[in-house]
Amino acid sequence: MAEKCGSEKASSSSPNLICPLCLDIFVEATILTSCGHTFCRRCLKKYDLTHQDLDHMVCPLCREIPKLSANRVDDLRLNVSINGCVDDYHAKCGGMNAVLEMCQKWKCTACKSLKDAVSFCRTCNCYMCDECLHCHQHLTLLFGDHKIVSMDDVIKGKVSIGHLFEKCSIHKTENKDMVCEDCKVHVCHRCVLVGHKAHEIKDQVDFEQELRHKVSDLAQRCADEKAELEKNIQNIEIQRHEVHTAVQTLLDDARQAYSIKAKELEENLRNLTEQIHALERSFDDDLNVLKSKDRQRIKSICSSITLVDNDRLGHLETDTLSAHILLCEELDAMLKEVTDHTSAEAIKKKAKGKRFKPADDTRLDLGSISGSDPKMEIIQCVDLRGMMQGMARYSHSTVAIGYGDDDIDIIDSNGGKQQYRNTPFSDMDCYDLVLQRDGSLCVYTGNTEAYIYSPLGSRKATIHVRNNTNYYLKVNKSPSDEIIITNCGKQVYIYDPTGSTLKHTVKTKHKTHQASITRTGLIVTSSCWVNPSVVTVYDRDGNAGESLQAPEDVYLYAAVDEQDRVYVASVDCQHRKVVIRLYDLDGLNLKERVEFNALDMTLGWSWCYLVSLSPDMLAFACHKKLYFIKVSL
């Protein structure tokens, strides 16, 4: 009896010596300075791997944020009191094997005989001697479905006896065999009735089973994520090889030019070589950053799953239960982060875009490295006096804006404004417009007709358009001044410059709200704010290339510049973002050349306009805002 009491005393004190992270006796108990919670030093070091890029750590129990010095966990002080208690516990209990020794001395709890237990009934939650086991086995009416395990199997570790529920501190005779998910504490059924009626209550066995399934799922996802990250690291090295190949090509071209130019150009060669090596170092640095991020995520994931995937989850106390639930949530959020599969490919593409450009034969120079990063910047934002309904190029730095039932404004890239005075708008509206090379103005007024005015303001022609869509017409012109009209139907109408003759009706696969024509006669169409929003290229016989299609609720607006390059604005009103891409024509298909950085714009609604003013200037309008955009290629 004395021996058993000693073991029970050690066991009763041991929960206070359990690390909330590893669920084992403290090893080098260490205090977090901000909140005073204590953990094993080795557990804190593993946990700190998820905070390496920060100057602090988040306490796993209370979420306090202690600052860390240069040596991080190593500079935290030890908990002398708890480490002393741990030493006393090991001395009294005979070392770390005390738990196994205690298991071998369990007595029967099903009767008062105090005989050694030979079995454990999981259903009754009690230890049984030979006689109690005999009763269980023969009274099948009462005990037929009970689950019994041998103590030999328990001691050898073949099976687990499962839950030994602690007693409720308030209702002394009741087991705390349920979990309140709202309060994250163990409770008995009387506690549920008294203080947790409206809370989410689960049976402890079911709760811990769900937690084990969650940890198992996290472990599998960790393995999958680790494999994906390692595969991505291999891909980064493949891209690095191609980057080095592209860089080597630059060096070869530079050296060949050097051999032709002569020895006096040696200094120029040295300068070029330094530029190229600087490029290589820049690309290497970018790739190393990607690789380092993936390796750090692997460390963080491995560290986190080591902390949460523990065989002792069945014995969670309140604090440790809270800590492990929070750790699982953090790990789950970490695994949802998307692996970057594209940046390394973009760096390789950037490296391959570099070209060696030989200098002119008459200059004592080798040449330079071309392919500087293209960029796009807003150089002017203009507040419009009303809602923009239509926009057209007026000159290389000026646009004309139509306001529907109001006059037309001429606005330049410096923000200057003036009204267009050459057309009598007192009796008509202007919902779209386009200016021809001779200064004539084609205006759509909101019905089924468009009018052409001379530069002096007299009406030259009326274009009658069949419109069965109930949408406003949109007008544009070709490089040869043909008038292009769309009505959000599946066709594009092309009139001669006078507007008197319909030359072509081109059938389209999608609803078309805007259309532009290249110098070679190809037609670039945009669905604009119609879902799905697409941009498609057609010839005049109606043959089509492959469409560019935007995601749901993202709208595409296209413009063709003087060099037959196609700019496409991708407008995401929900996230208030505009991304413009530049495409080259490849037959009837669009081949992306550049994706520019997202522009910071105010988007009032989904109806927008994109116009090319010159090879290096765009105009973009939405609602009551007009932007002039400088393009550098």
Report on the architecture of this protein.
- With 633 residues, this protein is α+β, with helices and mostly antiparallel strands.
- The protein folds into 3 domains: 104 residues, Zinc/RING finger domain, C3HC4 (zinc finger) (Herpes Virus-1, 2-Layer Sandwich), CATH 3.30.40.10; 154 residues, no CATH class; 258 residues, Neuraminidase, CATH 2.120.10.
- Strand 22 and strand 23 form a beta hairpin.
- The radius of gyration is 38 Å and the shape is elongated.
- The termini are far apart.
Question: What keyword list fits this structure?
Answer:
elongated; Herpes Virus-1; alpha+beta; 4-stranded antiparallel β-sheet; Neuraminidase; 3 domains; 633 residues
What's the rounded overall pLDDT mean? 82
Poorly predicted regions = 1-13, 95-104
Q: Total number of β-strand segments?
A: 34
Rg calculated over all Cα atoms: 38 Å
Largest sheet: 4 strands, antiparallel
Number of helices: 12
How many domains, in number, for the residues?
3
Q: How widely separated are the two ends?
A: 89 Å
Q: Under the CATH scheme, which architecture of the largest domain would be assigned?
A: 6 Propeller
Structural class determined from secondary elements? alpha+beta
CATH homologous superfamily heading of the largest domain: TolB, C-terminal domain
Q: What percentage of residues falls in helices of 4 or more residues? A: 25-40%
Spatial sequence of strands, sheet with the most strands: 11-34-33-32
Principal-axes shape call: elongated
Strand content: 25-35%
Which fold name is given in CATH as the topology of the largest domain? Neuraminidase
Q: Tell me the name of the CATH class of the largest domain.
A: Mainly Beta
